[in-house]
Design goal:
The protein is mainly alpha-helical. The protein is about 70% helix and about 0% strand.
């Protein structure tokens, strides 16, 4: 019997993680089993256990692989902080909405991962990823304030939360609730552009004067 190469092992591991995404989306993290994942991957249970000790290890690797892809593209030379913030928002909206590992894993983490001690490792991965996204956005907001693209009295925390709420609202309306059947990207871009324009000027996002 021919020995498996490193490339064979990596392909099997990738197939297992692909299968885990499909199985967990369908059955939920609590009800998916290693046998389910093995069957979906077209490998033996022994092959799955050869890569992962248990279901949670599979789920952790699945999430880490997908979120490693959810990274903002390199900033274009000469692009302002505010332009970069807008472009990154549209990039992530499209990335999260197109079928693929990122979409599936975010659906699992945000819609199927109950808050309990068994899911704690996955919740920590989710929270860490979201914190990194918020920190990156805050850096750009502060830079935009420093360059006077945004008002100097803008409430940084509230402005950051507004952008994430804008993203969540558009994503939920167009791609989860599926309220628009055609030209969804044209609608998504129009909504994000309108919301971003409000972000730049809304007095509600300014710090309240003391007194």
């Amino acid at each position: 019997m021919a020995r498996k190469t490193k490339e064979d092992s990596l392909r099997t591991r990738s197939s297992i993680l692909d299968a885990a995404e499909r199985v967990i989306i369908q059955r939920g993290i609590s009800y998916a089993t290693m046998a389910d994942i093995a069957q979906a991957a077209g490998v033996s249970r022994g092959a799955v256990y050869g890569h992962f000790e248990n279901k949670m290890e599979v789920a952790i690797a699945m999430c880490e692989r997908a979120l490693a892809l959810a990274v903002a593209p390199e900033r274009k030379p000469g692009t302002s902080a505010l332009e970069t913030l807008y472009e990154q928002g549209m990039y992530f909206l499209k990335l999260c909405s197109e079928p693929g590992p990122v979409q599936r894993v975010l659906q699992i983490l945000y819609m199927q991962c109950d808050t309990n001690e068994h899911n704690l490792p996955l919740l920590e991965i989710r929270d860490r990823w979201e914190m990194e996204c918020r920190e990156d956005a805050e850096t750009l907001i502060r830079e935009a304030v420093a360059s006077e693209e945004l008002p100097g009295d803008i409430d940084i925390g509230l402005a950051n939360l507004y952008l994430f709420s804008l993203f969540d609202g558009i994503y939920s309306t167009l791609f989860l609730a599926n309220r628009i059947k055609q030209d969804r990207w044209q609608v998504a871009e129009a909504l994000y552009r309108a919301g971003f324009a409000a972000f730049r000027t809304a007095p509600e996002l300014r710090k309240k004067a003391a007194g």
